[in-house]
Amino acid sequence: MTSGMTGAVEEPSGAAVLRRMLGDDIVLIEREKMLPYCRDWHGDAVSSAVAVIRPRSTDQVAAAVKACRALGFSIVPQGGNTGLVLGAIPDAPERQVVLSLERMNRIRKIDADDFSAVVEAGCILSELKDAVSEKGMFFPLALGAQGSCRIGGNVSTNAGGVNVLRYGMTRELVLGLEVVLPDGSILEGLSTLRKDNRGIDLKQLFIGAEGTLGIITAVSIKLTPYPDQAATALLGLASLEDAIKLYRRARRDCCDLMSAFEFMPPLAFTLAQEAISDLPIPISTEYPAYVLMEISGSGLVDVDDLMQRFLEGVLEEGLVLDGTIAASQTQARNLWLIREGINEGQAKRGAHMRTDISVPLSQLASFVDEAERAVSEALPGAVSVSYGHVGDGNVHLNVLPPSGSTPEERIQLIYKAKSVVNEVLDRYAGSISAEHGIGRLKRPDFDARLPETSRKLLTALKHAVDPELIMNPGCQLRF
Amino acid sequence: MTSGMTGAVEEPSGAAVLRRMLGDDIVLIEREKMLPYCRDWHGDAVSSAVAVIRPRSTDQVAAAVKACRALGFSIVPQGGNTGLVLGAIPDAPERQVVLSLERMNRIRKIDADDFSAVVEAGCILSELKDAVSEKGMFFPLALGAQGSCRIGGNVSTNAGGVNVLRYGMTRELVLGLEVVLPDGSILEGLSTLRKDNRGIDLKQLFIGAEGTLGIITAVSIKLTPYPDQAATALLGLASLEDAIKLYRRARRDCCDLMSAFEFMPPLAFTLAQEAISDLPIPISTEYPAYVLMEISGSGLVDVDDLMQRFLEGVLEEGLVLDGTIAASQTQARNLWLIREGINEGQAKRGAHMRTDISVPLSQLASFVDEAERAVSEALPGAVSVSYGHVGDGNVHLNVLPPSGSTPEERIQLIYKAKSVVNEVLDRYAGSISAEHGIGRLKRPDFDARLPETSRKLLTALKHAVDPELIMNPGCQLRF
């Protein structure tokens, strides 16, 4: 198509061809416009892409996949771009296209009588939660990013959050999926059946696959009655070990009505107040360990009474040293702001090491103890902050460099801290990713620990479902 | 190896070679000894096999798989042989080997502090439940066959049962799996981590695959605190529709403490008493619909009080017409015997049509109404019995031929009843298998309804994981 004549017509770029095939409205190719889709929200990674495709329908997604295949581009699916492991950020700008689901944000159906809803992948989680709550229903997935993350991303990454101990990971909230496969065909599985045991459950493949096997375009989800009662308490304890004892006790005493059990160190208050300056702290900040606990329910269950009786018992025994129960929704919200402020407070202190670790619950306290000790021996002056969803055996053991560290010192410290923590973690046979996924950030650590049998099976699966390897290459594994 | 000489040595059969390779103790080849492994417990199907292999360890399973491959035999894995869809019964006796997991029945570990256990596939479900309850823990899977079914079979078939509405299908109770793959390699995944989000979750492939992708040899499972309180009630209602209204109400009022909600028609009492002659029926048998409901919990929750208050409200409103609450464990057990007696009572009336249907909960009443009407129009004299796990949208709509029907008449009626019911089911976009799986029995019905995209994907998966197609051929699909 090139021409040597005067007024030569330049061969159109792949991006331009893609745009012509799919339409100007669908395809962005300007670098500045693509930028928000090509950097992660921490700002740690900035990249670019051939194009950003923003389809409005499942058929447009299928057309986009076929066009990309024809042109030899690979596809990085993206939801709200709030992931923490670079799973939705391109890393080969010259041959990758970002496919954003943000325009597929309709709620197709909410059926309160059926305890289910059908929503498109681009639905923002908090909007979905609000819409179902208007019908008296509840979608339990709850995480810090819920104002911007999108349900398709939550499903693709099998997101966790603060309510996992009662309701499970996202996987357990999914009834059905609609998926555009790497050949552009559409797997139609948006059933709302609660029980459907027709053999191998294909949707499980795509949950947690981070877009490496196909593009989730819509999801049918389980709903539960809205828990219109909640009792929230902040408790001071002598140690993480006591917090785990308390969790076991609460699992038995409060049964399946406990919806959150978060662990925090005293430093949490400092960090939260660095992020939110006028945040009230309604408890002495001098205990070695804190738990933020929530019991919730609906109907004839009295969760306030349950919390009261539970705390009376454990205070009397001395397992809990001090505690405050939120007397209003505002007070409860403020307690949660302490928990949520930890992240922002750490971010304000500059680049630091973040982890997302799980070990068996019975070994969590000794793991944290050992890992924090190893960090302080190897990196004097660095500060460990361990907090998280203790009931699930999931801890975010983060390491903050000494204040005044240079950017280079921080990078070195982060690198070193990770290897120190991972060395302890491997001895505990823990997971390097309890809830955040693998993406591109954790691929080397994942790869290094992958047993040969798992690798062979993953490779066989990848080649079976995506033989041209066009779906999110570089994410999870390199094949 | 054959010889024409006097005293000719006959070429040893494949079965004999297998026996020599794996050992006399491991391999049965006598027809009578193999019989119990080659017929289903209903006695509907009787077959045979080349051999029955009964390994005692994972390594022996792996060796058996390699030997079968080398000899060109395919493998039908079997647990307790209590399945209802012929998934574990050979159908090609000349080339299939049954691999029974019955000897791998050790409990490897129960860790109450970790809310987990690790058990071998051949553990009998009730023995496992008893063992964990001795440590104050509870494994929620509960089904009629629990005295003989084995956990590996439960996982392979993703078994359901009466507690699904609170605890989920077996899939949701599994933390990890050890699987012998079709090439004889061992996928080691017996982690007890509650949260582990390292990408694609390989274990999901094998749950519900009914042994078509590999052999589950051990399982790590979630435990919960033992619910030492239970309130059980039998309620009389005006209709199935009211039962579903009651379910919705109970979900809200009793929150996550409701553990069972079973629907039965008045005929249930007759059938149960035909099976268990002196079974007490503590309620008038003249209501059109009955619900057996259980609330359970541990610790500080008062489930008796909750049941009392719930029933007071719904009786006052007229949603429930009559009810009895079990005053003792014996009374509760007797109420459950009514529910469990339905199956045996039907069996005593001779061959009949059984289904395992799910439809969206909001359409269950109209589905049952329509399907029962269609049956009575098409098959005058036949009796429909619809009962089951209504809270999950799961109904067993069975059809009993008129008494005095000949075996041939029964076969014809079963065939006709199935097509009448399935015709209605397809209009409701329901599932032909809510909890029993596909096996060989439902393969034709599954196959006929399988969308092309799903078929392509299942075929690609099968060839990727089991390229020689040796695992349970004929089960779920023919490839």
TrEMBL record, chains A, B:
Q: What is this protein called?
A: FAD linked oxidase domain protein
**The entry's keywords:** FAD, Flavoprotein
The FAD-binding PCMH-type domain is annotated at 45-226
> What does the sequence similarity comment in the record state about its family?
Belongs to the FAD-binding oxidoreductase/transferase type 4 family.
What are its GO biological-process terms? respiratory electron transport chain
Higher taxonomy: Bacteria, Pseudomonadati, Pseudomonadota, Alphaproteobacteria, Hyphomicrobiales
Recall the GO molecular function terms of this protein's record.
catalytic activity; FAD binding
Q: Does the keyword Flavoprotein apply?
A: yes
